[in-house]
Amino acid sequence: MQNKRELGGQSPQSVYSRELGGQSPQTTTDIIIVGGGPAGLSAALVLGRSLRTVVLIDEGKPRNAVARKSHGYLTRDGIEPEALRSLAREELRRYGSVDFWHDAVQEVAITDGKFRAITKNGGSLASRVIVFASGMKEQLPAWPGLTDVYGRTVFPCPYCDGWEMRGKPLAVLGGGSNLMAHIKLIHNWSRDLIVCSDGPADLNEQEREQLEQRSIALYEQPLAGLESSAAGELTHVVLDGGERIARSGAFVTESGPRQATDIPLRLGVPLDESGVYKTQSHGLTRIPGLYIIGDAKQSFSGLTGAASEGYEAGVAINRALVEEDW
Ligand SMILES: Cc1cc2nc3c(=O)[nH]c(=O)nc-3n(C[C@H](O)[C@H](O)[C@H](O)COP(=O)(O)OP(=O)(O)OC[C@H]3O[C@@H](n4cnc5c(N)ncnc54)[C@H](O)[C@@H]3O)c2cc1C
Fold this sequence. Notes:
Layout: H1 15-19, E1 28-34, H2 38-49, E2 54-58, H3 81-92, E3 98-102, E4 105-111, E5 114-119, E6 124-132, E7 136-138, H4 146-149, E8 154-155, H5 158-161, E9 170-173, H6 179-187, E10 193-196, H7 205-213, E11 217-219, E12 223-228, E13 234-239, E14 244-246, E15 249-252, E16 257-259, H8 263-267, E17 290-292, H9 295-298, H10 302-325
Parallel strand pairs: 1-2, 1-6, 2-3, 6-17, 8-15, 9-10, 9-15, 10-11
Antiparallel strand pairs: 4-5, 5-6, 7-16, 12-13, 13-14
Helix pairs in contact: 2-3, 2-10
Bound molecules: flavin-adenine dinucleotide (FAD).
Flavin-adenine dinucleotide binds near residues 36, 38, 63 and 295.
């Protein structure tokens, strides 16, 4: 897919339209979708099949870009993250009413119940409905060496990567009030487990005894860093004071997810205490015509959950437009 730079600094145009013969870009559409991960792509598919005009605007910086493989998505278990999105974009090409802009939405204004999105590359597009499938971005703990191994042998989610790490010497890294729940969960995939809570662990006496009974060592010193091989595989967890503990992989208790965009917030959609946008049924927000789906709504919906939300929102949006037009 092309971006403005690749297009030679011209005004943003539909990548599909250009590939189909360079038609001029649209200025209005039924639905703008912000974000081309599984949530946005799935919504675009349902809406395209419902004969709706859709412009999907994606800046191409998904949260799982650091991962080498994605797991647990039916028929695509083990696929590379970008390959999954690329397959979906290829399927969408069948639907002439769906267009794709490689660009970033910077501003959205609402006038008389209609939306107008302004993009980084200077695009301006009006719509009846807007869907934010913009996902989350990580703000990882500042442990030296973490970014070298994150998405390779250190992960946020055992359902995504636990099977690949099964039986290996693992660590739970980080603390928080859900620490015990994390320990129990990761213990499901490996009995060779340590916990490095990077400060005093939020565990009661009974929970500490349970760890001892299972030979799970608890280290409460601050974490000094993570060492890895030249290939980016975790080799050691290093504690304050210099102790190095050999480990092959780890799961973090907290990856610091933040909304990828605050545009819905600026438009008046509130965040809940966990930092996700508050929505009603099928991702509809308190603003008529503005929907939020995927990680932006669930924090970590997973590929299947995000695609499922895209489908549900797509059906709900089309039903609402059918009623409006009747
Ligand atoms: C390291 C890691 C590994 C993971 N592995 C798995 C796995 O194996 N299996 C699994 O099911 N889940 C996995 N996940 C979770 C999964 O990646 C997410 O739950 C899923 O991608 C959410 O989909 P989404 O469509 O909501 O958001 P995303 O996939 O993050 O897509 C959002 C898109 O919106 C774009 N965007 C944001 N703001 C704007 C804007 N203003 N304008 C234009 N575009 C914008 C972003 O650039 C991005 O392309 C993993 C997550 C991480 C962090």
